[in-house]
Every structure is written in C-alpha cells, then in structure tokens.
Design goal:
By secondary structure, the protein is of the alpha/beta class. The protein has helices spanning 40-51, 62-69, 129-138, 152-163, 174-183, and strands at 18-23, 57-61, 97-101, 113-114, 117-123, 141-144, 167-170, 188-193, 219-227, 231-238. The structure holds NADP nicotinamide-adenine-dinucleotide phosphate.
C-alpha cells in the first residue's frame, strides 16, 4: 500500500519530497508510447495507478512538458533593469503542481496552470531576463536549480520548503529519470509494463543517465499486480546500499 499524504513516513528524507518514478515502459524498457497505438483504456490505467499515490505534484523533463506547456510567443522586453536570479513563487496554495526541468528556458508556457495544477519550472542562472519576464507575465513559478547545471537534491529541498511538496511523482522521460537515478533521489520505482516488445534502438528508455554503464541502483520488490489489458504494475523500493 502506498503511503498517504498524512503518513509520517512520507519524505525520502525529512527535507525533501518522497520521489516515486511512475512510468509505462515496454517489456524492453522503451518509453515512447506514441509508436505503440495502445488503446485509450490502457493509458487510463496509467492515470488511475498514478492517482492512487495521492502525490502533491508531478515533475517531467523539458521535452515531455512541451505538449502540455503550449507555444506562446516570447515578447520583446522594454525595460533594461536586470531581473535578479531569485526564485519566483506565483502561487503556493495550489491543490497540485506540474513541474518541469527546463535549464535554458525553452518552454513557451501558455498559462500558469495545467488544468488545476500550478506550473513551476526549474531553471539555471543562464536564462535571459526576457524569459524571466515572460514567466512572470504568464504566472508560472520558477526556481533556480544552479548556475549552469541543476543540483537535484537542492531543487527537491526547495520544492518541499517553497510549495510544501511531500510526495512527488517523477514521470519521465528517460533523461530526467536518469538524472534522478544518478543523483540517488528516487525512493520508489513504479512501472506499468505494457504488453509491447518495442525493439527500437536509440529511443528514450526508462532511465537514460549516461552513455555506457549507468549507476545500476538495486531495487527491492514491493508489489506486483495484473491490470486491465495485460498491463503489469510492478513497484520497487530503492535499496540504499549496493548489496542485494
Ligand atoms: N512511457 C512513459 O511513461 C513516458 C512518460 C513520459 C515521457 N515519455 C516519453 O519520453 C520522451 C522524452 O524523453 P527524453 O528523455 O527525450 O526527454 P525528457 O526527460 O522529457 O526531457 C529532457 C530534457 O529536460 C531537461 N532536463 C531534464 N532533467 C535535467 C537535469 N537533471 N538537468 C538539466 N536538464 C534536465 C533537459 O532540457 P534541455 O534539452 O533544454 O537542456 C533535457 O534535454 C517522449 O517521447 C515522451 O513521450 C514516456
């Protein structure tokens, strides 16, 4: 059973959210579902299982967020005053948060929310002032995750302190998942294995951390459940030591 919001065990450490990586891979670990033409009913199993975690927020990579963020035009900026690299919280009382990692400010947010979920984006100091002005005008919250690179443990601590996020779903793609794996900040892996043998080479997979050998974290089986349409829902806890 997954811990609920009120469960005192929630939180990988007391200072950051408990992180569950929840995904739909093929049996060979590929994740580009578009190519599989799965029936909608199967994809709704993903939403149902995700909802069962009662998470406060979800986070995805810049590429995966593109279809949700939209394609608003970036306006020219009239003022020349530099905008300080200070976190901007447009809203901290939302029922849920939709978060992206977008180090160079490429997402063109149409608004500060996706359905009822408040949009938050994680940037580096490299983004131009014009982009910060754009995010403010759209009501999108932003946090700085580092000068040139994103420091994930620090970002997670900010998500907890600025927005009170205690449980976070990490929902792909492979690059963001791989970076969380390498940083050692995943507490649980939840996969809804699709009855598909994909076989493509060079497409995103569940964890794309580095070329060659990856961090190879060990897992502990928590539960296995057969779901509609031959989906298999497997949940693992992360083992903190290297040994089985
Ligand atoms: N089957 C599933 O459950 C599932 C779920 C979600 C997504 N997907 C699929 O996954 C595919 C996309 O995966 P992807 O691996 O190509 O992209 P992705 O993880 O969605 O986004 C990667 C980009 O996000 C930014 N980013 C993420 N983590 C970062 C970090 N720690 N530090 C700095 N930047 C970071 C970088 O942006 P910049 O490039 O701007 O530097 C990076 O190139 C799509 O086809 C999508 O449909 C499948």
């Amino acid at each position: 059973m997954s811990p609920s919001r009120s469960d005192s065990r929630v939180g990988g450490s007391s200072k950051r959210p408990y992180v569950i990586c929840h995904m739909v891979p093929s049996v060979d670990g590929r994740i580009v579902t578009k190519a599989w033409s799965l029936p909608r009913a199967l994809l709704s199993e993903y939403e149902r299982t995700a909802a069962s975690f009662h998470a406060d927020a979800w986070i995805i990579g810049r590429i995966s967020m593109e279809p949700y963020a939209g394609n608003a035009a970036l306006q020219a900026r009239s003022g020349r005053t530099r905008i300080p690299r200070i976190d901007f919280v447009a809203r901290s009382d939302a029922p849920s948060y939709a978060i992206a990692i977008d180090p160079r400010g490429k997402l063109r947010w149409e608004s500060g929310s996706i359905d009822e979920e408040h949009a938050v984006t994680i940037l580096t100091d490299q983004v131009p002032d014009r982009y910060l002005a754009f995010l403010r005008s759209r009501g999108v919250s932003y946090l700085f995750g580092g000068k040139k690179q994103i420091d994930l443990p620090a970002v997670l601590r900010k998500l907890r302190s600025r927005f009170g996020i205690r449980k976070l779903l990490l929902e792909g793609g492979g690059t963001i998942n791989g970076s969380f794996l390498a940083a050692g900040v995943i507490d649980e892996v939840s996969v809804l294995i699709a009855p598909v043998a994909d076989g493509s080479v060079g497409t995103p997979s569940l964890f794309d951390a580095t070329k060659g050998s990856g961090p190879a974290r060990h897992l502990k089986l928590l539960s296995v459940e057969r779901r509609r349409g031959d989906l298999l829902w497997v949940r693992y806890g992360m083992r903190r030591g290297r040994h089985m």
